[in-house]
Amino acid sequence: MTPPDRPHPRASAAAGLRHVFLRNLILDAHIGIYAHEHRGTQRVRVNIDLAVTDEGATDPAHAVGADTIHRVVDYERVANNVRALIAAGHVKLVETLAEQVARSCLDDPRVMSARVRVEKLDILADAESVGVEVERHRA
Predict the structure, then answer these.
(1) Cα 104 to the chain's mean position, in Å?
(2) pTM, rounded to two decimals
(3) Fold for domain 18-53+72-137?
(4) How far is it, in rounded angstroms, from Cα 60 to Cα 82?
(5) Predicted confidence (pLDDT) per residue in 54-109, tens digit
(6) E strands within the chain?
(7) Tally of CB atoms within 10 A around 98
């Protein structure tokens, strides 16, 4: 587990980790606690960083391995999971959505940790976004 004062683990041969990421996925979500937020969708931006076990990191002879999607964490599947969570219905808090996304990422046993940022993009006229970031680790 990464101490709070250290950055999220990136690709690391020493730690046997691969860094898989999804950047700036923008979706329309039913999200918010206020009455006006229940009447339509709001744009959210989702960013995900995953620390994934990498067999080849500690054994360069196996670094490439089979050239098949089944041996890696599929970022399209990660994106589709986020889309499905958002399509499932109204969520009150960005914190709840971030936790749901992190949990869905950790469903893959190769994912050791997930850092998820969820931002609402059109909330404050004088701010680009508001939101939350969570980091969860496999127990």
Answers:
(1) 9
(2) 0.86
(3) GTP Cyclohydrolase I, domain 2 (3.30.1130)
(4) 33
(5) 876 555 555 556 666 767 899 999 999 999 999 999 999 999 999 999 999 999 99
(6) 17-29, 42-53, 111-120, 130-137
(7) 25
Domain ranges of the chain: 18-53+72-137
DSSP 3-state of 91:
strand
DSSP assignment of 92-113 = S-HHHHHHHHHHHHHTSTTEEE
DSSP-based three-state secondary structure for 132: strand
- Around Cβ 106, how many Cβ atoms within 10 Å? 17
Residue 10 binned pLDDT confidence (cut-offs 50, 70, 90): confident
Residue 34 pLDDT greater than 70, yes or no: yes
Q: What is the pLDDT of residue 91?
A: 98
Comparison of pLDDT for 14 and 36, the residue scoring more: 36
Tokens 């599947």 — which residue?
A: 77
State which amino acid sits at residue 21. F
Tell which residue, 97, 88, 110, 84, has the closest CA to residue 47.
97
